[in-house]
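Interim report, section 4.2 (structural modelling).
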Amino acid sequence: GQQVMQIPQYQHVQEGEDFTTYCNSSTTLSNIQWYKQRPGGHPVFLIQLVKSGEVKKQKRLTFQFGEAKKNSSLHITATQTTDVGTYFCAGPSNTGNQFYFGTGTSLTVIP
Amino acid sequence: EPEVTQTPSHQVTQMGQEVILRCVPISNHLYFYWYRQILGQKVEFLVSFYNNEISEKSEIFDDQFSVERPDGSNFTLKIRSTKLEDSAMYFCSSGGLGYTFGSGTRLTVV
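Predicted structure of the assembly:
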């Protein structure tokens, strides 16, 4: 079945350092979504990318959708302690009615 | 900002009992979803619901599970004859232009 993998599984960074998580799908995706989940919290929708090669920015966060629409990345510049959490990507099934979440990258920011 | 509301926040139940998890989606959203997340693991899709019927369900969503939208606002997930391995966070989500998750119900089966 369709799989969505993320690397790394865990990342510890010093505050102020950059962070990147990579998402890879076993199939071509019509779109990809990114979520942030704080410890003990629920997933919070960050963004959806639709176009091949699309790059979107939200303040210090940069999201990219690969040319082949099978991979994506999230880059955080100059991390802050408020960035702590697990970042998940999610891609739809062929029907668009089911979403496959990635395995997540847990970010720890050391002050 | 509109929210997806889930109740209860925590449910403890005996193995074999039935539980009903409740969700109030955002009112103008058309697509509704249930997910579960076992502690420390990724979010797993259970079922999607559109136009008052199931649009897709995962392999996890077997005959033990059912969903309803009984009154046009609430969206429920029923788990019959709960098992220990059903212990997890259950999230409801609704979608419009974006996707909003509720705060979840932590289900503990003992």
